[in-house]
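Table S2 (text version). Query chain:
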Amino acid sequence: MTRSTRPARPAAPLRPSAFAPQDDVALLEVENPTLLAIGVMVASLIQILDSTIANVAIPHMQSSLGATSDEVSWVLTSYIVAVAVAMPITGWLADRVGSRRLFIGSVFAFVATSMLCGMAQNITEMVIFRALQGASGAFISPLSQAAMIDTNKPSRQPQMMALWGMGIMIGPILGPILGGWLTQNWNWRWVFYVNVPLGAVALSIMFALLPSRPIAKRRFDLAGFAMIGILLTSVQLLLDRGNHIDWFQSLEAWTYLFLALSSLWMAVIHFFTAREPLFSRSLFADPNFLFATFFSISIGVVMFATMALLPPMLQRLFGYGVIDTGEAMMPRGVGTLLTMQITGLMIRRGFDPRILIAVGFTIAAGSLWEMAHWTLQTDYGHIALMGFIQGLGMGMVFIPMNATAFATLPAHLRTDGSSMLNLSRSIGSSIGISIVTTFLARNLQIAHSDLTSKVTASFTQIVDFSTLDRFQSYGEAALAMLDAEVNRQAAMIAYVNNFYLMMWMTLAVIPFTLLMTKPNLMPPSSSQREPEDLPH
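Corresponding structure-token output:
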């Protein structure tokens, strides 16, 4: 590792800001930060992909492993729960064993468990291996975000956050496409095996270049971790299994709710009274970080809920194939990438990040308003255009949100802060998917009931109801056709109502940007040095 030489000078006091330190130098020096960023991004991408890539392979897994529909649903649930439970201890583990060891070990374990998932012979093995895969990969996203900040100088950090955010935003879009292609052309097991070559590339780069923060002795808050683990597990199980168990019509849902509320109450008291809680209390003393956490939940709700709605809508109602669905959703990723790069440059030029966040949410809400006017005759171009516009809005929110969150956060809290933001987005996505799935089912029933009450002899001339008794077989076929069309129209109404719901949820977030304080995100220049910064 080469270090530049310069005249000796007194050590300048460290400032807490991540994006506006005294010198434009990285916290951790790296010989080739660009190559390291590629390795970190590949590691982050395979972990994000696995949150959605297995979804399209579930029917094939079910038949291959001889599982019931309820049993195979645990393939997704076990992964989500394991990620949620393991992620909060990222900061403690990074301090205890070193960020480099934890990151490399996490990627290695994730690749190894991916291979085990591909080799699973029954549903029990698959659920266990998926839980291990989720637990080992839970550390990758927060560590990758912290590494991108620590190894790049402040003037490049907005661009690095844009690159990292691109993987976070595009990963869930690519997952179903790649998973569908691999399942159709190869085998569902390749949904997991694809992580092996990509993981090898990431590990090679990180072994060569990844630096580490100093190891710090930090007490493990076992009681706090247990309470948070029970809370997150209960919430995730309630959200993921709510529809399967008919929500609060079952004892299982009430059990999850009781455990969640009880552990939340105890965790809050423990947090304020413990000598060394799992998360530092100073992490939540920063109002901008708290708002960024709230916005991260909102992004999870809007982005992941929309992406959960669109594939089944396009495939079942519009007749799109898996690849066609992916192509229709790809412009969303293009829009995200575009505005991430633009907002990174705007932040460097001194634009107020609060305005960028508000404008981004407004653009996203506008696209949802337009989507709420879709019909079964909406064409491919319009669907792709609205996805592109929504991607523009989400990309405009993501970079200012992360920049504001880390701007005044002390360097030693970055890993904890990153794990909290990633956990918030994960919980937000679970909440969003659960909300839209529940409302979709209920709105479908309501719309179907309303439409069928209007299908009478005076309403349609397609079927002569008076002849149904004489031509029973033809009459049954005609009624089946009518019922199928009513179902299609009712489903479209249910999707439209969900788009309206998400639009209002997005608009409701915008006023909170006014409560944030404007951070100093301008990169330092030689003219901005303080007197003690000048060479003697």
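Notes on Table S2: DSSP finds 18 helices and no strands in the chain. The chain has a mean pLDDT of 79.
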